[in-house]
Amino acid sequence: MITVYIRKYRNLPVDVWKPGAAWTRALIYFSFCNIIIVTSGTLEQLITQPLFTAVQISNISWVAYCIFCFIYVFFAYWILWSRMTLTFDRKYYLVIEVLFGVIWGFCTGGLLLSFYHLWSLTGAPGWGRYLLSFVSMGLWQYFIHDYFWDVYISPEHDTPKSILIKTFVCHIPNMIISLGFLTIWGNYFIFISIYIVALVASTIFQKFPAPWAKGQFHRPMTKPGIGGFLRGAGYLGDIDKPEKN
């Protein structure tokens, strides 16, 4: 995929958004995530660990917390996130969007899970694993989304206001809740499943174009960030007028 990107898109200006370029960049990132998931030993745990145990499924606290995790992620992403997302009349590609969302959710959830798994190998107590994992995950998500994903992969889908609301009502609470479940109960696959549910919704409701999609697309608006690198800024223009690519 790196070779494909270099041959086809290396000279593409940052202010031009093309579906093929976005998909290629995303697949390169997903490959990186999967390398970390495998080399960290996280994939081995996912394969060998049961989805849940008989003791857990008979524990009302486990059941209640698990249900709460999925109710919250559904509310945060399928309801709230969807209502605050710009699409600029992009077309739905539902099957492709679900496929992309599942891959995105597995890779993102798996990479974040790898942070937790590596910290767990240090022998840190539960509260220590939680804090170290939360800081690691939060920093990673901040930099990868602000400086990469929302600049080079997603088409424009936010405003400055929606970025703040999504961060403090959707993303951070979802991480707090799901990481708490993971730390207490240790269910690796359920943690990843929560992120799959979230990112399938994100892909569908921003109407992420298929790689072959044609037309004019709003590129993400950016502003200088740390070190002068571009970061996602959110849309401030006329939502009814697509940009010319």
Sequence-ordered SSE layout with sheet pairings:
Elements: H1 2-9, H2 19-39, H3 42-48, H4 54-57, H5 60-83, H6 94-120, H7 126-153, H8 160-185, H9 188-205, E1 222-224, E2 230-232
Antiparallel strand pairs: 1-2
Helix pairs in contact: 1-2, 2-6, 5-8, 5-9, 6-7, 6-9, 7-8, 8-9
Question: How far is it from the N-terminal to the C-terminal residue, by CA?
Answer: 23 Å
Strand residue content: under 5%
Look at the helices and sheets and give the structural class.
mainly alpha
Rg, rounded, reads: 19 Å
Order of adjacent strands in the largest pleated sheet: 1-2
Total helical segments: 9
**N-to-C SSE string, H for helix and E for strand:** HHHHHHHHHEE
Number of strand elements: 2
Assign an overall shape: globular
Mean pLDDT: 95
**Count of structural domains:** 1
Could you list the spans in which at least 5 consecutive residues all have pLDDT below 50? 240-245
Helix content: 55-70%
Q: Report the major sheet.
A: 2 strands, antiparallel
Commentary on this structure:
There is one protein chain. The C terminus is likely disordered. Helix 1 packs antiparallel against helix 2, helix 6 runs antiparallel to helix 7 and helix 8 runs antiparallel to helix 9. It contains nine helices and two strands; from the N terminus they run H-H-H-H-H-H-H-H-H-E-E. It has a two-stranded antiparallel ribbon. Helices cover 67% and strands 2% of the residues. The two termini are 23 Å apart. With 245 residues, the protein is mainly α. Strand 1 and strand 2 form a beta hairpin. It is globular, with a radius of gyration of 19 Å.
